[in-house]
Automatic annotation (TrEMBL):
Keyword Nuclease found: no
Residue spans crossing the bilayer: 12-33, 45-64, 84-102, 114-135, 159-181, 188-209, 229-251
The protein's name in its UniProt record: DUF6545 domain-containing protein
Signal peptide coordinates: none
Species this protein is from: Streptomyces glaucosporus
Keywords carried by this UniProt record: Membrane, Transmembrane, Transmembrane helix
Domain DUF6545: from-to ranges: 261-361
Presence of keyword Lipoprotein: no
InterPro entries linked to this entry: DUF6545
One Pfam family in the UniProt entry: DUF6545
Amino acid sequence: MDSHEDLIDYRVPAVFLAVALAARLLARAGLWTNPLRTRLWTDPLLRAVVGLLVLAVAVCVFVTPEMIVRVNAVTGVPNLAAPWVYTLLALFSFSCLLLIIAWQRGMEKARRALWWTTAAYAAVTVALWVLFAAADTPVERVRDFDTYYATTPYARELIVLYLLAHAAAGTVTSCLIWGWLASRKYEVRGWLLSGLLLLGTGYVANLVFDGLKLAAVVARWTGHDLDRLSTEAAPVSGALSAILVGLGFLLPHVGEDLQGRWAARTACRRLEPLYRLLDGAGALTGFSATRRASAYLALADRDTSIRDGILRLEPYLDQGLWDRAHEEALRRGAAAGEAAGIAGAVTITAALGTRTALPGRDTDSSPVDLLGDIHAISAALDHPLTATVHRNAARTGSTDA
C-alpha cells in the first residue's frame, strides 16, 4: 500500500475526530450551550469523553507513515514509534472501557472495576516498553512492523501483547454495550440509543482490525505471507472503528445539547407575539438579550421580561373579563388549555388599553394569575377565535354592567 493510500486511511478519521473534539471543547466552554450548566466543567464523564477523543486523534495522527518516520528520526531509535503507537492504542482501548463502565454503572458504583482496569492497563503499558527495550529491531519498518518482526524474540511478545490487550478491551466493551442494549431495550431511547448502536458497530469493526492483524502475524509464524491483511485491510477497519466509536461517544452529549438549544429557540419564537405586544405598549423594561446570546439566555430573558410585564399590569387585569372570555372560548369549541390562553390574551389586551386610558390606576381586587399560561397566551394572540371571543366577552360585560 502506498503512502497516499495510508494517508486516506488515517487522515479521514483524524480530521473527523479533531472536528468532534473541537465541538466538544466549544460546548464545554459554554459557547453554544446553556451557560448556566456548570456541569460542563465539573462532570467527570464529559471530561472522559474529551480525553478519549484526544487519544483517538493522537492514534490516527501518529499511525500515519510520515509521523512514524518523524518519531523515529527525532528520537534516533529505529521503530520507537511502534511501542508509542501501541501504547496509544492500549490507552484508547482502556479509556473506552472505563467510559462505558462509568456510563453504564455510574462513577461511584464502578469505582472498583475502574481501579482494576486502570491497574491492568498500567501493567500492559509498562510491559510494552520493557519488551521493546529487550527486542532487537534495528531495521526501520514503517508499514509492516507487526509482520516483519512477528518471529523476533520479545518483539513477537510485544506485538501479541498489544493485540490481545486491544482485543480484550474491545471484546469486554462490546459485550457491555450489546448486553446493556439487550437488557434495557425498552428503556434506552433517543440520543443514548443512537450512540450505543454506533459504539456497538464500531467495536465490531475494532475486533475485525485485531483479527486481521493477528491472522497476518500467525501466518508469519507458520511460514505463510498474509501481510496484506495487516497493511491494507486492517487499517480500513481501524479507521472505520475510530470514526464510529468517536461519534458514538460524542453523539449523546452533543445531540442533547443541540436538542435543548433547538427547544429553547422554539420556545423563544413562540413567546415572540406576547413579547411584541407588551413591548409595543411600553410594558417591558430591563435587559434584553442580543441576537448573539445563547438560546438559553435569550429564552430566560424573554420569559422573565414577559412575566415582569404581566406583573406590572396586575392593577388593570379584569378577572370577570377572563372568566367570560374563558367560558366563551370553551363554548366555541376550544380545548381547556387553548381556552385559558385565549382568555389570557383577551385579558392582557384589554389591560393594556385600560392602562393607556387610566394610568396609575390602583385596585385591591385579587389579580388574575396568568403567569402559568404565557406560552398558551402568546399562541392565542394569533388564534382566529381570539378577536371574536374578545368582542363577545366585552359586550357581555357591558350588558351585565
